[in-house]
Amino acid sequence: MTDTQKFPAGWDEERVKNLIADLDARTDDEWVAADEAAATDAVAQTVVTVPTTLLPEIRRLLAAHHGG
């Protein structure tokens, strides 16, 4: 196994650590507000709960739909 981390373009270890620190510092009320904002800001989107086993297929379908 290798200890080398691979980050997406524009990301590095410092950026990941900062994001984790910001998310860890959120209160429950801030998490609820973020979820509500995401749900109301979404245009023509729907949030659904699906079995975890279906996620690979759903991701494949979304990638095909978005041309990725």
Q: How helical, in percent, are the residues?
A: 40-55%
Morphology: extended
Sequence of secondary-structure elements = HHH
Percent range for β-strand residues: under 5%
Taking the sheet with the most strands, its summary is: none
Q: How many helices does DSSP assign?
A: 3
Protein topology:
Layout: H1 13-24, H2 28-41, H3 55-65
Structural commentary:
54% of the residues lie in helices and 0% in strands. It is mostly helical. It starts with 12 loop residues before the first helix and ends with a helix.
Short description:
The protein is mainly α and 68 residues long. The chain contains three helices and no strands.
Task: Quickly list its features.
mainly alpha, extended, single chain, 68 residues, 3 helices, 0% strand
